[in-house]
Amino acid sequence: HLVENGNFQWSAPSNIALVKYWGKKDNQIPANPSVSFTLNNCKTITKLAFAKKDISTALNVKGNNFSFDLLFEGQPKEDFKPKIQKFLERIEIYLPFLKDYHFTIDTENTFPHSSGIASSASGMAALAMNLMSLEKVLNPEMTEEYFYQKASLLARLGSGSACRSVKGQVVVWGNHTNISGSSDLFGVEFPNAIHANFKNFQDTILLVDKGEKQVSSTIGHDLMHNHPFAERRFAQAHENLDQLISIFESGNLEEFIKIVESEALTLHAMMMTSMPYFILMKPNTLEIINAIWKFRNETKIPVCFTLDAGANVHVLYPENVAETVLQFIKNELVGYCQNGQYICDEIGNGAVLI
Ligand code: PMV
């Protein structure tokens, strides 16, 4: 019952972790649970065209290769293909029809490429959504819940954090005793109501270093095996997530800041204490952190930072102080950004079918 051909288009956003995923077991199973804000403006938009192969072509698949073309911003992009090939290999057991089709994957990001913003989360999520749309055509009876859970599961196999880019606004990935429905296999929407203090929460991303990072996150995750502080770190992630559960309910921004900044610094502390050790922060990352602390001390405005696996700084703050904080960012932080570049984003709702 295969359909002959057609296409879909999905957009999927990036996300920023508050409790960080760093360290994994086989099959992209996280060593600890994580939680993130889904973003709104930083997105990947991917169109998937599919055409059924005729039987002789389908039976004539050479080796383990899938049949697909990859376009990035309209141009063929050969160097992304091995990553997609590996992704398709990993998910074939969940989508057995993959080798019956030739795919054209046409993808673009709303943020500048080589901005140091990882596009793997939004990119893998957008591709997973498209593949699920095809699966739904073939199996129309699936529920919406199944659709999104399986999309997140597939995205996870592309890039771990991608499983948190399917839904919004706050997504938990990884088993945690106090979050019902949480799973190591896919991300779930945070199940409880979130305090109004987090409504339209702002994330201004300061692009400190747009270069290729020296150590990939794949290698970084691996270095958590036999890491001297790994077990304590994984336990701490559970504790921090526990605290965030009550903070999301109470809206206590002071406590929120403590957890979020500590998580960011702990992530980088893990990098600095692995063997081999490495540092992804740049001098301007520290300049920005110090400037944020000074501003917060002086104004008592609840603004804080977080970091992902790179030098860029995410500045997080509530909507009602946005004007003042943005002024501060323009006056005092933009000078630390490469070419003065930054991106204004906020908490968002997840992937969308276009
Ligand atoms: O999804 P990966 O394998 O690129 O890992 C991302 C890890 C961090 O961004 C550093 C933290 C996180 O939870 O997103």
UniProtKB/TrEMBL annotation:
> In the record, which residues are listed under signal peptide?
none
Record domain Mvd1 C-terminal: where = 205-333
Which Pfam families does the annotation name? MDD_C, MVD-like_N
Could you provide one GO biological process annotation from this protein's UniProt record? isoprenoid biosynthetic process
Give the top-rank taxon of the lineage listed in the UniProt record for this protein. Bacteria
GO MF? ATP binding; carboxy-lyase activity
Family annotation (SUPFAM superfamilies): GHMP Kinase, C-terminal domain (SSF55060), Ribosomal protein S5 domain 2-like (SSF54211)
Domain called Diphosphomevalonate decarboxylase-like N-terminal: residue spans: 12-178
Alphabetic keyword roster: ATP-binding, Lipid biosynthesis, Lipid metabolism, Lyase, Nucleotide-binding
Reply yes or no: does the keyword Lyase apply: yes
Q: What is this protein called?
A: Diphosphomevalonate decarboxylase
The source organism is: Flavobacterium sinopsychrotolerans
